[in-house]
C-alpha cells in the first residue's frame, strides 16, 4: 500500500512537472540555462577565465572609444560577420558615438556565444538548442531594431519630417491585422494573374487535392508523363511562378506532359485525415489520373521537399504491394528520408517541444502555416525577421516585390492527425529509415526495397534539408541513383531556370553503391548553369516515345482552367 502510494505521488509530480514545462518552458530554454549556470558554478576556474576574457574585451573597447573621441580613424576591434548587413551604413563607422554602440553590442554578443560553447557538461543537443535561443535574444536586442539606437532610422525621420515614422506605424497597424511581418509587397501579386499562369486544366478534384495537367507545347509529347508531388506545407506554384522561372512551363516546352498536385488547404474538419490518406487518396490518385489520361502504364514521378519524402514512402509502399512497375523513374528534390540530423529545425524537436506543438495543433485541429513559417524564419532571424522589422516599421518602407517571398508567405494548414504523425514518426523517431518500422496504408515501409531509378537533387546551402543528410537515401535504395548538387539554397537552387546570365552551377554524376558523399563530390566536375537541361534529357530517356498531346479524357474531363480553386484557399 505504501509503495503504491509513493508511486502514485511520483507520477503526479512527474505529470505536474510536464504541465509546468508545457506552460512555461516547452522548448527547455530555462532548464538548459539553469544547467549551464550550475556547470559554471561547479567549474569556478573556467568561469574566472571567461570573465577575464570579457574584462580584456571591455578594456579594448574602452580604449577604442577614447581613441575615436580624440579623432582616431575607425578600426573595428570586433568586426561584424561578412554576411551581417545590419551595420553596413557608413554612419556606424564614421561616427565615434554610433561606432561605440555597435562595438559594444558586437563584443558582448561574441563573448556570450563563445562562453556558451565553452560551457562544461552540456551535450551537443543542449549546446545547439541553447545557441539557437541565445541567437534569438541577441538578434532581438540589436541596436538596429530600435528607433532610439538606429541612426539610419533617426536620419530618415528627420529628413522626411516624420513621414517615415507615420508610414511605419501604418505598416505596423496593417500587419498586426495580418498577423505577420511581410517580406514582400503582398499587393503586388495575384495567383492566376501574374503567378501560376502556365495554361493548363484541372482534371481531377477530390477531398485532398486537385490534379492540374499542363500539356506539352510541342507537336508531340513524351508518352510517359511527369508527375510532380508538391509539398503540402506550401502551395504548388513555387514551381510555376512566372514564364521565366516556371519549371512547369519549361518542362512543357521540352515536350513533357506535366501533372502536379494542388493540395487542399485543410480546416478543422480535416483533423482526422492521416498520412495513409495522403498516400492512397493523394499521390496514388494523381499517378492513376496521369496514367489514365496519357495511356501510359508508367509515370516519371517527382517530389519536392516533403513531397519528395512522400514520393520515397510511396515507392516503398508500391514495392511492398508488388506494384513498383507503375513508376518509370523518380526525382527527389531536396528530400529528407533520414531525419537523424534534419537541419536547424531540430532545435524544436525534443519530447517536450514536440508535445507542445501537438497540443497547439490539437486545440484547432490543424497547424496553421503561419506558425510553421514563423519557425523557419526564426532559423534566419536577422535576414528573415528583423531586416523587415527595421525596413517596414522604422524606415517606413514598402518591401520589394519578390514572387518567391510572396509564395513563402502564402501559407497552408496541415491536418492534425497527419502532421502529428509525420512529426513524431518521421522527424522525432526517425522510423522511415528503419526497415519495416512504419506501416503505411497497410504496407510495411522499407526504403531498401526501392529499385526505381532515382534522380536526386540537393543544394549546397540548404538549411532545411542539408545535402549530406539527403544523401543518406543513396545508402538505402537498391536501384541506380544519379545525384545532383546545385549551388544556392532550398528554393533558389531548385527554381533555377536555364539563363545565359545565371551565376549558379552544379555537380552531377551517378552514385556507386556504398559511396560516401565526399568521395562522390571529389570525382565530379563542376558544371556552370542550370541542372534542368540534364534532368530533362534524363527524363526523355525514360519518356516512352512520342505521342500526340491529350489534355483530358472522358474519365477525367477538363473541370476548369489552372490554377484551379484549391490554390486560392
UniProtKB/TrEMBL annotation:
<dbReference type="GO" id="GO:0042619">
    <property type="term" value="P:poly-hydroxybutyrate biosynthetic process"/>
</dbReference>
<dbReference type="InterPro" id="IPR029058">
    <property type="entry name" value="AB_hydrolase_fold"/>
</dbReference>
<protein>
    <submittedName>
        <fullName>Polyhydroxyalkanoate synthase</fullName>
    </submittedName>
</protein>
<feature type="domain" description="Poly-beta-hydroxybutyrate polymerase N-terminal">
    <location>
        <begin position="84"/>
        <end position="251"/>
    </location>
</feature>
<dbReference type="InterPro" id="IPR051321">
    <property type="entry name" value="PHA/PHB_synthase"/>
</dbReference>
<keyword id="KW-0808">Transferase</keyword>
<keyword id="KW-0012">Acyltransferase</keyword>
<dbReference type="InterPro" id="IPR010941">
    <property type="entry name" value="PhaC_N"/>
</dbReference>
<dbReference type="Pfam" id="PF07167">
    <property type="entry name" value="PhaC_N"/>
</dbReference>
<dbReference type="GO" id="GO:0016746">
    <property type="term" value="F:acyltransferase activity"/>
</dbReference>
Amino acid at each position: 500500500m505504501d509503495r503504491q502510494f509513493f508511486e502514485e505521488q511520483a507520477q503526479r509530480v512527474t505529470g505536474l512537472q510536464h504541465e509546468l514545462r508545457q506552460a512555461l518552458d516547452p522548448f527547455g530554454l530555462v532548464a538548459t540555462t539553469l544547467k549551464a549556470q550550475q556547470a559554471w558554478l561547479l567549474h569556478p576556474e573556467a568561469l574566472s577565465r571567461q570573465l577575464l576574457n570579457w574584462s580584456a574585451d571591455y578594456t579594448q573597447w574602452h580604449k577604442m572609444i577614447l581613441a575615436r573621441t580624440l579623432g582616431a580613424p575607425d578600426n573595428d576591434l570586433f568586426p561584424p560577420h561578412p554576411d551581417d548587413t545590419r551595420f553596413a551604413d557608413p554612419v556606424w563607422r564614421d561616427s565615434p558615438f554610433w561606432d561605440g554602440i555597435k562595438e559594444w553590442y558586437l563584443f558582448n554578443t561574441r563573448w556570450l556565444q563563445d562562453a556558451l560553447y565553452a560551457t562544461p557538461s552540456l551535450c551537443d543537443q543542449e549546446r545547439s538548442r541553447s545557441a539557437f535561443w541565445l541567437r534569438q535574444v541577441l538578434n532581438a536586442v540589436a541596436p538596429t531594431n530600435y528607433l532610439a539606437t538606429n541612426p539610419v532610422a533617426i536620419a530618415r525621420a528627420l529628413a522626411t519630417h516624420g513621414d517615415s515614422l507615420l508610414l511605419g506605424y501604418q505598416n505596423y497597424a496593417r500587419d498586426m491585422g495580418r498577423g505577420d511581418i511581410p517580406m514582400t509587397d503582398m499587393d503586388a501579386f495575384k495567383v492566376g494573374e501574374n503567378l501560376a499562369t502556365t495554361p493548363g486544366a484541372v482534371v481531377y478534384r477530390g477531398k485532398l487535392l486537385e490534379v492540374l495537367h499542363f500539356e506539352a507545347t510541342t507537336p508531340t509529347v513524351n508518352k510517359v508523363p511527369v508527375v510532380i508531388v508538391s509539398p503540402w506545407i506550401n502551395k504548388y506554384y513555387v514551381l510555376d511562378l512566372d514564364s521565366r522561372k516556371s519549371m512547369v512551363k519549361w518542362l512543357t516546352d521540352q515536350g513533357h506532359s506535366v501533372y502536379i498536385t494542388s493540395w487542399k488547404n485543410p480546416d478543422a474538419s480535416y483533423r482526422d485525415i492521416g498520412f495513409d490518406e495522403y498516400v492512397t487518396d493523394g499521390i496514388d490518385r494523381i499517378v492513376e489520373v496521369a496514367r489514365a489520361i496519357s495511356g501510359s502504364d508508367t509515370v516519371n514521378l517527382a517530389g519536392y521537399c516533403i513531397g519528395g519524402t512522400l514520393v520515397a514512402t510511396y515507392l516503398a509502399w508500391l514495392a511492398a504491394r508488388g506494384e513498383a512497375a507503375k513508376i518509370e523513374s523518380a526525382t527527389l528534390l531536396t528530400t529528407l528520408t533520414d531525419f537523424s540530423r534534419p537541419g536547424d529545425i531540430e532545435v524544436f524537436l525534443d519530447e517536450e517541444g514536440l508535445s507542445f506543438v501537438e497540443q497547439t495543433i490539437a486545440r484547432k485541429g490543424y497547424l496553421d502555416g503561419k506558425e510553421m513559417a514563423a519557425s523557419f524564419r526564426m532559423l534566419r532571424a536577422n535576414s528573415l525577421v528583423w531586416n523587415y522589422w527595421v525596413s517596414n516599421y522604422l524606415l517606413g518602407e514598402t518591401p520589394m516585390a519578390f514572387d518567391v517571398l510572396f509564395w513563402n508567405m502564402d501559407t497552408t494548414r496541415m491536418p492534425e492527425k497527419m502532421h502529428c504523425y509525420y512529426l513524431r514518426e518521421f522527424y522525432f523517431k526517425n522510423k522511415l529509415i528503419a526497415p519495416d518500422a512504419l506501416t503505411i496504408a497497410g504496407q510495411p515501409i522499407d526504403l531498401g526495397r526501392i529499385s526505381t531509378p532515382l534522380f536526386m537533387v540537393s543544394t549546397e546551402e540548404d538549411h532545411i534539408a542539408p545535402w549530406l543528410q539527403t544523401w543518406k537515401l543513396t545508402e538505402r535504395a537498391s536501384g541506380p541513383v544519379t545525384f545532383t548538387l546545385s549551388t544556392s539554397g532550398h528554393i533558389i537552387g531548385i527554381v533555377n531556370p536555364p539563363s545565359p546570365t545565371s551565376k549558379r552551377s552544379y555537380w552531377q554524376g551517378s552514385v556507386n553503391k556504398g559511396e560516401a558523399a565526399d568521395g562522390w563530390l571529389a570525382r565530379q566536375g563542376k558544371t556552370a548553369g542550370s541542372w534542368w537541361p540534364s534532368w530533362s534529357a534524363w527524363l526523355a530517356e525514360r519518356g516512352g516515345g512520342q505521342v500526340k498531346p491529350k489534355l483530358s479524357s472522358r474519365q477525367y474531363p477538363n473541370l476548369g482552367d489552372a490554377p484551379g480553386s484549391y490554390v486560392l484557399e
